[in-house]
């Protein structure tokens, strides 16, 4: 009877041990392989880990977003996988389907996302710096300081007026934690890529350097709204340069006076003394007046061959231009446009 009780007790103990062991095993299994990310309305959580952040910073960032169902599970798995010693900065998309192990593995390996950096026809270096750093970790002020640093300008053989010519407009895919120097390196790489031997030879055929092409393209960019007449406008300016005529480009006057929203260029503006005022100074201005589009650059490299020396906006406000070979015809076209401006009381 006593022996039977002992056996029964051992069986009960073994059953209880198995149940407890199974429960503990299931608990740890869930900690590692269970879903640990809260639902975010069907969208991924977005986690930005800044450069220099440590594990405590990461935990705080995650907690602030109320991302985890079980913070203790994340802490335990992270320590087992040595993530605290391997924190990597970047932008991370965290799906609600991830297990704790998958989350830690993603962060530990630095599987971060790229972001879009859009640089279009910005008109000043501060605007360029702002656009280039808008979606990444790099700081716009520090990037501007880098762009205008004497050591950099000397190494690139540029100055503050010409350095803008090195910035190519485009949509760049960059990692969020890109710093100022890596950003500049990427932009310079795009510049070198664009200026192929073929384009350099096209510039030489026009007796222009790549820098001069970009400077002229910046005027073309600001002069016309319609891409399909860029090559015509480029042709006019190249014809004037060949003849030694003043460019007399209104956008350069707007740049000179610092009023990009100027609706009507008047005689007082034409008298403004600045090397950017192409009504007063011959040749190209000291540097680009904006970051020109690749369409504008290619329009200069592939200009329309014609004999036009003049153009002005059409009086129908279509934003197209009326071209002329003689000053007499141009004067007629200009008076029509000026009369149209007067009728609309644009002064």
Biggest sheet details? 2 strands, antiparallel
Strand content: 5-15%
Number of domains: 3
Q: What is the topology, as strand order, of the major beta sheet?
A: 1-2
Low-confidence stretches: 13-22
Question: What is the H-and-E element order?
Answer: HEHHEHEHHHEHHHHHHHEEH
Count of beta strands: 6
Tally of contiguous helical segments:
15
- Which descriptor suits the 3D outline? elongated
**What is the C-alpha radius of gyration, as a whole number of Å?**
32 Å
Quote the average pLDDT.
Answer: 90
- Helix % is 40-55%
The end-to-end span amounts to 116 Å
Helix and strand composition category: mainly alpha
Structural description of this entry:
The protein is 50% helix and 9% strand. The protein has a two-stranded antiparallel sheet with strand order 1-2. A two-stranded antiparallel ribbon has the order 3-4. The chain folds into 3 domains: 29-108, Endolytic murein transglycosylase (Dna Ligase, domain 1, 2-Layer Sandwich), CATH 3.30.1490; 114-194, no CATH class; 197-306, no CATH class. The model is unreliable at 13-22 (pLDDT under 50). α5 crosses α6 (140-147). It has helices at residues 2-33, 55-64, 71-80, 100-108, 125-132, 140-147, 150-156, 180-194, 197-205, 210-223, 230-243, 250-257, 267-270, 294-301, 327-343; strands spanning 45-49, 90-94, 114-119, 170-175, 310-313, 321-324. It is elongated and about 125 Å long. It is mainly alpha-helical and 347 residues long. It contains 15 helices and 6 strands. β5 (310-313) and β6 form a beta hairpin.
């Amino acid at each position: 009877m006593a022996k039977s009780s002992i056996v029964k007790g051992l069986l009960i103990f073994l059953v209880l041990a198995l149940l407890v062991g199974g429960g503990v095993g299931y608990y740890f299994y869930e900690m590692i392989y269970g879903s640990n990310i809260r639902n975010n309305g069907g969208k991924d959580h977005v986690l930005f880990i800044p450069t220099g952040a440590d594990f405590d910073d990461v935990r705080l960032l995650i907690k602030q977003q109320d991302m985890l169902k079980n913070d203790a599970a994340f802490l335990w798995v992270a320590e087992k996988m040595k993530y605290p010693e391997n924190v990597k900065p970047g932008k991370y998309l965290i799906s609600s389907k991830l297990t704790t192990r998958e989350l830690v593995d993603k962060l530990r390996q630095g599987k971060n996302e790229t972001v879009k950096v859009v640089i279009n026809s910005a008109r000043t270096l501060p605007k360029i710096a702002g656009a280039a750093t808008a979606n990444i970790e790099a700081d716009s002020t520090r990037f501007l300081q880098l762009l205008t640093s004497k050591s950099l300008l000397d190494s690139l053989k540029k100055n503050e007026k010409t350095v803008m010519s090195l910035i190519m407009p485009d949509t760049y895919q960059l990692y969020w934690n890109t710093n100022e120097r890596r950003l500049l390196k990427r932009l310079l790489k795009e510049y070198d890529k664009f200026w192929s031997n073929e384009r350099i030879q096209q510039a030489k055929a026009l007796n222009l350097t790549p820098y001069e092409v970009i400077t002229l393209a910046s005027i073309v960019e600001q002069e016309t709204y319609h891409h399909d007449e860029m090559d015509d406008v480029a042709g006019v300016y190249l014809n004037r340069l060949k003849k030694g005529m003043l460019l007399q480009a209104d956008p350069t006057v707007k740049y000179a006076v610092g009023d990009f929203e100027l609706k009507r260029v008047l005689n007082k503006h034409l008298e403004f003394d600045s090397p950017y005022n192409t009504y007063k100074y011959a040749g190209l201005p000291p540097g680009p007046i904006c970051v020109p589009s690749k369409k504008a650059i290619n329009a200069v490299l592939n200009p329309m061959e014609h004999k036009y020396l003049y153009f002005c906006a059409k009086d129908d406000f279509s934003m197209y231009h009326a071209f002329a070979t003689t000053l007499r015809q141009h004067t007629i076209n200009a008076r029509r446009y000026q009369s149209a401006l007067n009728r609309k009381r644009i002064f």
